[in-house]
Queue: 2 jobs
Job 1
Amino acid sequence: MAYAAAFRICGDRVEAQDILQQALIVLARRSPELGQVKCLGAWLHRVVVLEARKARRKAVNRRLRETMAHQENEVSEEQEGLARQIAPELDQSLDTMNEKDRWVLTLHYLEGLTFETISRRLGGTSEAWQKRSVRALGKLARKLRARGISVSGVAMGAYLLTSRAEAGVAASVLHTLTCRALEQGARDTAAAGKLAVLLTMKTGVAISLGSGVLLAYGWGALTHDPLRLPPHVGSRTGEATESDPEYALAARRERGFTLEMVKEAMNDYDRTETPDPRLESRLRSLMFLVPEEALEDVFKILMASRDHQRFQQIAAALFACWAERDPAAALARSQEAADFSYQARRAVMITWLNQDIETAVVMMLANKSDEDKGFLSEYVTYQCERTPAEAAALVDRIAKDWPEADRMLFERVARLWCRSDALSAGDWVASYPDEQVSRPLLRSMAMDVAKIRGFEGLAIANHIGDARARLEARNNAIYWWAITTAGSSIIPGQASPVRDVSGGFPADWTAENIRTFAQAAMVNYADKFPEILKIARDEDQRILIYEGAIKGAAWSNPAAVTEAAEHLPDSFAQSSGGKKTLGAFVRRWNEMDPVALADWLSTQPPGPKTVVMRDALNKEGTKR
Amino acid sequence: MKAWIYGGCLLLGLAIGGMMGGASDSAMATPGTPAGKAAPSKTARSPETLETTATRMVFSASPAMKENVPLDQAIDILVAERKSPLRTRAFLNSRIQAMTSNQLAQALANGEVQTEAELRETARRLTTEDPEGTFAHIEKQDFRFGGMENMYTFIDTMLHTWADADAPAVMARLQKMSRGGSQQDWSLRFSDYWAKIDPAAAAANFDALVYLRNMEDRGDMIFTDRSYAEKIVRTWKQRDEEGMNRYLQDLPAGRRRDALEKAAKALTASKP
């Protein structure tokens, strides 16, 4: 590793050996201090860089680079040219990086250690080191770009990996390149006659034709507005991939980003009377295409806008983009963002959480502000859309250090998680140590889940320890299940397995559960009353269905359940609940269709039920 | 020498190609121009060009932005890219803005839209363009939301967007619904919102709204005058207490006046 670094800087094998020797002397001399050094590799690297700098000043092989500069047209030589550009600057840039970034780049890319090994040696998780390495590569690439070398983070990583392997053969590669370059130079000189000029002209004509045709016919494709494509909604074919030619074009197009474009888009948005959602949407998306070097300029344009309130979400998008590249720098800048500082911090923290959760959480725990609590909530909401278990893990991670946030986020995640995986969410909530928190939440979740997934809601209610509370929660869940999806729970062959009761009410359902199901089913499915009756196993269950149905249909469709009123036992009319229900039943029917009610009532035999119903109608008439 | 010749040829080619491209461009429909109509000629750096370029750049920024990628898959792609969550939202919003009403309705029918922010934006777009049609779609259960919460997110946004534009029209449409749970449910949501944004108008339509809300969950016939009157009075008092008092004084005796006066007194007693 040390030899490779020295070689990269000076480009000479013998000189690199000298540098390494010098560095080892320094190592030996300072051995008493080495106990305090956490990463020996990084320390040695720094020594080598310092020594190599000295050596480089003395001997630079200019002739080689000048010759190489002519080799522009061959791809392989381009890559090698990039390597040659990077090599002398790499180690000096690496040396200016912060400690941890230097550690990870040195250990992983130059010494070849795995992230697992690095995490064991230096602490932290392998994922965190991996993420740090990606960020560090990006920073390194930026530093190199600042020195005039155009290189991406990915190319940087590839170069470092290959440079480790090729340190031993670098000299021979350079030798080959040198020879090739010299040969090419000689060929150019020999071809400087008329024939060569003619050949060149021929190629030039081909270039002009090619570029002309490309521009003429490629223009339509390039300017093709996505809005005008024929609709393919619902089509699941034609998934795009990064390797699509279209995205290769896109990569080139991104270079077309101009500040003028942003200014124009902002002016368009700023001058409308009321905020235009379409313009806002375009601007928000455009912010994510701002190149790193233009972030500050775009922010200045934003600050110059007329109505800062209108531009809050735009500022958030800009800072999110900033944070994607360098969250620490974005956070620092957000503190000076005046009117936009809240949205800027929000965007930075949410982005940071998504890209490097460990660091972001540590920062939030150090701060523990209400603002950050809100940002965490927004982030876990986002996570719950696709990876709720990860959101739950995040909440568990902060529970001990930040109980206030835990309480809020715990409920939020539980509710969102139970939409996609109710049973796991129920298990998670049941594991919460404080029953005062978990019990009402389980009850509420049971209700929400039962609406869609019937029995799973009851399974969640079953987690409640207190027997009475558990029964209440189950009954409540059944009520909402029936009110919402009874219609599709009682038809054989149509019901979803998680809520199929078409074969009969489950054995563990109480009389109250059956009554409740029938009552709630009438709210939206009064026309399904005959089907619900078929579920009844015996006469007792039929009576329970009658009781529930007449109560439920009293305000939806009383006429649909006349059979219930006719078959209920007289004793029903003697209870206070029964009187109230029968009264409600006829009052609502009277309101909806008094003639039909009068007809039906005239056919009813005298008895306690009829008396109660007539009394209710008379009272209603007197009241009016 | 060679470089000069190549450079010259390239420029020549670009110039010729540019002219040809410009000619074909004028025959093509451009964004904002009806198909077949020639777009006005423009310079390379005119604002229209910049807008088009910006839009194109946005739509080329991720495979998720391709029009034939369904919205639910687009979310998966954007989430997997592991960039900012705000980027995911912004890009999806741009996708929605670029879709026609029919495309949006079809996406909802396919169950492609199941995230809160996108449901809200879709509901807002559709309702703004065709409130009656959107209402009818929901009533007929044309859309697949993948859960009650998602459905209510959509319905609330639809009712609020329409109420902001024309609340009486919403009430009239609710009155046309068949009596039952959905009518009550939507009426409760709409009337609560109307009481917040325009308590005077909600008070003026008090009887009709209470009828729509008149359903107690457990089936008993309990009229909900008072609870709704309290909602109206709470907002009205905050915004224009004098106006509210004048309105109550001018009201003829009856159920509405009783309910609103009682609610006002109760509120005063609880918050002197």
Job 2
Amino acid sequence: MQDRATKSDGRADRWRVSAVGYERPYFAFLLNTPALLVIVLLAGYPIVYSAWISLHKYSLKRPRVFDFIGLGNYRQIIESEEFWSALWITLEFTGLAVALVVLLGLAIALLLNRDFPGRDVVRTLILLPWAIPPVVNGLMWQWIYDSKVGALNGLLVSLGFISEYRGWLSDPISALLALVCADVWNAMPLAVILLLAALQRIPVELYDAARVDGGGPFQLFWYVTFPWLAQPLLIVLILQTLSAIRAFDVIYVLTAGGPGTATTTLTWKTFLTTFDSLDFGLGNAYAYTVSMITLCLALVYFRVLYRRGDFEA
Amino acid sequence: MNRIAALAPFRERLPTYLSMLGGLLVTIYVLAPFSWLVLTSFMHEQDALSVPPQWIPANPTLSNYLTFFDPTGTRAVVGSRAAEQTLPSMANSLIAAGGTAALNVILGALAGYSLARITFRGRGTLLGLYLGSRMLPGIALIVPLYLTIRTYGLLDHLSALVITYLTFTLPFTIWLLKSYFQAIPRALEEAALIDGCNWGQMFWHVLLPAASPGLVAAAMFSFMTAWNDYLFAVILTSTIASKTMPVVVAGFATDVTTERTLMAASGVLAVIPPLLLAFLFQRLIVQGLTSGAVKD
């Protein structure tokens, strides 16, 4: 917002070289050049190149063949059952993971916004899952879920919930749920941090005023807290959706898309097609399909972020 | 009457007690899975495989960690690959993540400053471009990146990893530093210039020190992103010359011959640097994540 102050009115102004340099467009471009070079060369160029490859028949198994087939790869994707299955599993995984992250994140953020002994310790500890690399997270949960010596089996049996050890990762439904839980553990802190920051921005006077007017706890939440949380919640929702769609490491380590195709999401399918079947043409078409879905969500995110509202002040 | 009077304080304190109970549950949820990994890394293999599980190691041992320093010892035979590769891959990860962090701060500070201070045509477009490139899924870039890096003969080189990570971390860094620079009063740099500094001196001696929390935060976030990456590392590296820790750790996960306790130990080692950063710079992280995702 501070930029408004120096916004130049006329063309003459724009070229004026002031001592501080606030009005020097060439200088600005010079400062941006190194960053732009890296991003254009290593993100811009690949994304265009990737689109080009996706229009070709190109497999590393026959590296000399590079035939233009138009949208052939995309047609093959849409007509294949594997795509629809992967899309459905992506929806299931994303929907469950996002719902859990948002609910759990909100609950923990509300809790940590209260005053109680030990709160600061919990606020610090909540960062722990966030700091764990997804690969280690996957490994950690793999052993927890282990069918022969896992902690989950050990715990549930000793508490009497189940009578014998189970293979949590070998049943299609429990494998997906196990994957969701592992991902949620890793992703939940970000939601807590963002929502807690939003809660702390709510002026205390609003609560006092509402209490004076006779509001109960639920009314306080609905009429005071929630309006301030609506935008951050939406942001958490979108960020988590994007990251769940992209989830890769944890799937690789924990289930590798299995059992069968029970946890084969679009991202995992893209990886398999590209680096297992070595079909780079089809793989890139898959990658593009994922990108398009992500991009649509990202556009929504931008709109939420830049709709100047009460939250941004 | 007496009973009611005695109960009143309890009823008043009930919400606090419930909050503490909630805090305890959250603590268990956060700590329990990780503790099991840590405890396993201090167990002997047969203890780790016991049924029911040993929650507290009966005979705690450092042998798993010591194996990494003595990859030719007797213990190493059962997990030779794990034993040999863990420490070198940790060094690789440190170099790749450290390099990414350093370059991020340098390039990000320049671009971030221009976006925070200078009015120029295309500023909005650039901001949008940086934000947009953060949204690209890595899986979409991996094939063309792989082909390009192969063309330049940089496969299995740490430099290829650093430059790849730079692409992913720089947009966030630029946005983050932009908001830090915006929070520094303009009067500060104007005063420096009036006192006879040129722009470079002003930037180096006045502005960067004033923005140092932002620089630390940016370095830390990019370090952690680079440290955590698996997808690019597994595709772009092939030998221990450039394999990073996540690649080595994930390699064990799919390898049944490596001992579980040894894997746990290398998993714990992979967690230490990001965990240290997270707890040391807690305040900066919370600030940075919030301003990076929410604020303009």
